[in-house]
Amino acid sequence: MDRLEGIVAELKSLTPGKLEQAASFIHRLKYLSHQERQLVLQRTSGSLTREEAGEIERIIEEGCERIDERDW
Predict the structure, then answer these.
(1) Those residues with Cβ within 8 angstroms of residue 19's Cβ, 6 or more apart along the chain or in another chain
(2) pTM score > 0.70 for this model?
(3) Confidence grade of residue 21 (pLDDT, cut at 50, 70, 90)
């Protein structure tokens, strides 16, 4: 039994009230995860100058647009 199956089995054994509490907790975890991602984006947004961003974009395009047939 994998982790998810074990969690589901435990959830099935809960009373309706406890199941509601578990659902609320899971929802909060999901919501907090979304909030954390948004905070990271807010903290890092605008941290590069236009020139730095352009240079990174150029490097990615140059380095990732090629296929080395000998590499496979």
Answers:
(1) 11
(2) no
(3) very high
